[in-house]
Amino acid sequence: MAIWLKKGKPEAQVMEENFGVTKVVAQIIKDVEENGDRAVRSYSEKFDSWSPKSFRLTEQELKQIFNQTDPGVIRDIKFAQEQIRNFAQLQKDSIKDIEVETLPGVILGHKNIPVNSVGCYIPGGRYPMVASAHMSILTAKVAGVKRVIGFTPPIKGEIPKATIVAMALAGADEIYILGGVQAIAAMSIGTESIEPVDMIVGPGNAYVAEAKRQLFGKVGIDLFAGPTEVLVIADETADAEMVACDILGQAEHGPTSPGALITTSKELALETEIEIKKQLQKLPTADIAGPAWENNGQIILVKDEKEAVYQADRLAYEHVEVLTKNPDYFLENMTNYGALFLGKETNVAYGDKVIGTNHTLPTNKAAKYTGGLWVGKFLKNCTYQKCTPEASLLIGEYAMRLCEIEGFMAHKEQAALRVKRYSIQGETA
């Protein structure tokens, strides 16, 4: 039976805190819907002190930003994008259109059709989230989306140059310096100057996530992404320094970011708690990571690998690192996770920034029913059917009887009309 050596906030308390966010977001969306650009500008001034002549960057402005960016930064961004593009293309190549004859004269098929337009939100806030440009914009372009627009907020009144470079290199057709709920609302609803999109993707804070939730249906979304999560599964072969380092690596995202350790070793559990306190004393982002661990951290002691899998699947965390002597056991047996990082040689930072897999992943237990963002999210799997007259006659006779069972008489008539016509054709042929 699992033993909790440390627990985070109760779920009920977290839900109560989220209720205030819901009301604020609803009001902003309503205002943007009613007042368009005027509302967008008002909220941008209020929250970001940002009110340029145009939120959309011109080609000349983009050229200036590239000229002002360190060539080394551009080189590193290009390397990361090469990895993300390569894996995304391989994933796309695994998706096939099909057309098959299931009965004589019955042709069924499906096509994978890209969404026509996508809005990508690239978070800012405390940090310039450069990598989110690769994960969303670039992946959408690999999928074949025709119009991809990118939004990112200013940071302390400045344009985040490296983020803009990444957005442009990823292939964004339009780039806007605009963040928050007002950006999500503008992309979804449209304003006088911003044409709406069909789908919105990308991570963000609690307000951005709630805006996507409220606007889902008007537009498609990738997933409901809340605060980032990390789970480390470790046994006696792991060392506390690495476990603590990897938990704090995600905790610095924000004070509401959950981190957890599931371990079969009580000694490692106790050492990890000590090591986290030690590392927080030196960590430049301790003012964020410290409260995240204090309020949302968990340590769960389990008896064996099987129980570790059970508890990990129950948590269904976004990132799961496996630091055990047999990491492949978890690859074979776990079912609920955003991304797995198997063995001490890899870690969440690799996945977040450069290795090639997508970092936009399910949180808040959404891993129980969905995976993360990938090329397939931008593709609509659309079916079609064709029949010969002889096949229509066969299928129609079954359809008539089945429609009558359900009481759908107009449906029955569709089938009956074809049965009648193709029966006559068969008789006169």
Structure, explained:
This protein folds into 3 domains: 186 residues, Nitrogenase molybdenum iron protein domain (Rossmann fold), CATH 3.40.50; 145 residues, Nitrogenase molybdenum iron protein domain (Rossmann fold), CATH 3.40.50.1980; 40 residues. The strands form 3 sheets. Strands 1-11-10-9-12-13 form a 6-stranded mixed β-sheet, sandwiched between helices. A 5-stranded parallel β-sheet has the order 6-5-4-7-8, with helices on both faces. A 3-stranded antiparallel β-sheet has the order 2-3-14. It is built from 15 helices and 14 strands. The radius of gyration is 26 Å and the shape is globular. Helix content is 50%, strand content 17%. It has 429 residues and is of the alpha/beta class.
Describe, in short, the structure shown:
With about 425 residues, this protein is α/β, with parallel strands linked by helices.
Structural class: alpha/beta
Radius of gyration: 26 Å
Strand content: 15-25%
Largest beta-sheet details: 6 strands, mixed
Helix content: 40-55%
Shape: globular
> If you average the pLDDT, what whole number results?
95
Topology pattern, helix = H, strand = E: EHHHEEEHEHEHEHEEHEHHEHEHEHEHH
Q: What is the count of DSSP helices, taking H or I runs of 4+ residues?
A: 15
Question: How many structural units, i.e. domains?
Answer: 3
Q: Based on DSSP secondary structure assignment, what is the total number of beta strands?
A: 14
Organism: Cecembia rubra
Protein name: Sulfopropanediol 3-dehydrogenase
Binding site for Zn(2+): 250, 253, 352, 411
Cofactor: Zn(2+)
